[in-house]
Design goal:
Oligomer: single chain
CATH topology of the domain at 230-347: Rossmann fold
Structural class: alpha/beta
Strand order of the largest sheet: 7-6-8-9-10
Radius of gyration: 56 Å
Organism: Rhizopus stolonifer (Rhizopus nigricans)
Coiled coil: 113-140
Largest sheet: 5 strands, parallel
CATH superfamily of the domain at 230-347: Response regulator
Protein name: Transcription factor
GO molecular function, one term: kinase activity
Distance between the termini: 117 Å
Pfam family, one: Response_reg
């Protein structure tokens, strides 16, 4: 169509003969395209030229001409037409391995690719570890839920047992009260001796006796123990610790001290004791809480409360938590010895042992106070062994207690 001079006004060679120019696109579409191109569409013709590597030349003039050029499309060079071929579109294969192109990249890129693969491998390992940790955590949480349910069930059973023990304790208290009432009815003189006023009078006489004889010589006769009793004295008052410790030392006891409940529990974890003297009001951990903790692992060692609160409700409260006896403050040496003799009787020699004073009279096993001056006489009122506060606090049942007084309940 370029060699046909009839279409020179529509399409022609450019001045250099290396390209062709379409002067009128509309006329070219109507007249020439139907003869040489099956698609009578100028846009399709231009796309076909692009597929055969023809390039449009930008025209600086403002006319409507189109100019196309190809390296092998030249005037009077038909031999070059064989070189004009359709362009082959190369699409990258997605399934082609990355390693096939590694040899064509630079060493720096190869190093980066290797580092990237190493990083991916590390990330995958961390992800697997996190999955494993998550699984283990789920198993642990499930185990904790199972244990929580088991503990809740055990607490429910434990609470039921506590209710039953409280009922049993109330029945025992009712029985003891009934027996005491029967005893009072049958023996009026004994009833008078068991009253609160009479017991307090005895305690006051004992204190007056000790104050009157202060400064006099004391003759101490040690008990015959097969093995010295090991006593743990728990009290935050340093004066009581010192005085009580001296008394127990005179009785040939091995004494250790604790300032509060926490220190007492630490000592009980390391050593075994024959008797525990427990104060009630203490810092850090009081005597009631300490006794509850002791009874969790030790239901045999006697625990005696040292307190100035000795109402009937207090006594029953102390017994209900596992205490074995009450030692009211302030107490005398004979009262302390009565507690020691009662709860450590298994450590004494089987023979009867007594001491004799310089006047030849028989004294109690522990202590007898005598005057060094010949002009000093004994007080008119001498406290007897039955005057100690323990006899009152246990309703004159010091030697005839129910069995549960000696065996604390297990918790």
């Amino acid at each position: 169509m370029l060699e046909n001079s009839a279409f020179i006004d529509i399409v022609r060679w450019d001045n250099s003969g290396t390209g062709f120019i379409i002067n009128d696109a509309n006329e070219f579409t109507k007249t020439i395209l139907p003869q040489h191109f099956k698609h009578c569409n100028f846009a399709s013709f231009v796309r076909q030229l692009n597929k055969y590597d023809f390039h449009k030349i930008r025209n600086n003039k403002q006319d409507q001409t189109w100019q196309f050029k190809h390296n092998f499309f030249k005037k009077d060079r038909k031999d070059l037409l064989e070189e004009i071929k359709r362009k082959i579109s190369v699409k990258p294969r997605e399934d082609r391995p990355v390693e096939t192109n590694v040899n064509t990249i630079s060493p720096e890129d190869q190093y980066l690719a290797k580092d990237l693969r190493h990083l991916i491998k590390r990330l995958q390992t961390q992800v697997n570890q996190m999955k494993q940790s998550h699984h283990e955590l789920e198993v642990t949480v499930e185990h904790m839920h199972h244990r929580d349910r088991a503990v809740t069930s055990e607490l429910g059973v434990f609470q039921q047992h506590l209710v039953k023990k409280d009922d049993l304790l109330k029945q025992c208290i009712t029985l003891i009260t009934s027996n005491n009432n029967n005893t009072k009815t049958s023996n009026p003189s004994s009833n008078n001796k068991n009253t609160l006023t009479h017991a307090l009078d005895k305690l006051q006489q004992q204190q007056q006796y000790l104050a009157t004889n202060k400064g006099k010589n004391k003759t101490i006769v040690a008990a015959n123990w097969t093995t010295p009793p090991r006593v743990l004295l728990v009290d935050d008052d340093s004066v009581y610790r010192d005085v009580s410790g001296r008394m127990l030392t005179m009785m040939k006891c091995s004494v250790e001290f604790a300032k509060d409940g926490l220190e007492a529990l630490d000592k009980l974890n390391l050593n075994k004791y024959d008797l525990i003297l427990m104060d009630i009001m203490m810092p850090n951990m009081d005597g009631i809480t300490t006794t509850r903790n002791i009874r969790r692992f030790d239901t045999v060692t006697p625990v005696v409360s040292m307190t100035s609160n000795f109402t009937q409700d207090d006594i029953m409260g102390y017994i209900s938590i596992g205490m074995n006896d009450i030692l009211p403050k302030p107490f005398s040496k004979n009262t302390l010895y009565d507690i020691l003799e009662k709860h450590c009787a298994h450590l004494k020699l089987p023979t009867n042992y007594s001491a004799t004073t310089p006047t030849g009279t028989t004294t109690p096993l522990l202590i007898e106070e005598t005057s060094t001056s010949s002009t000093t006489t004994s007080p008119t009122t001498t406290p007897t062994h039955s005057a100690n506060a323990v006899d009152y606090l246990t309703l004159n049942q010091h030697r005839k207690r129910p069995k549960f007084f000696h065996n604390p309940p297990s918790y």
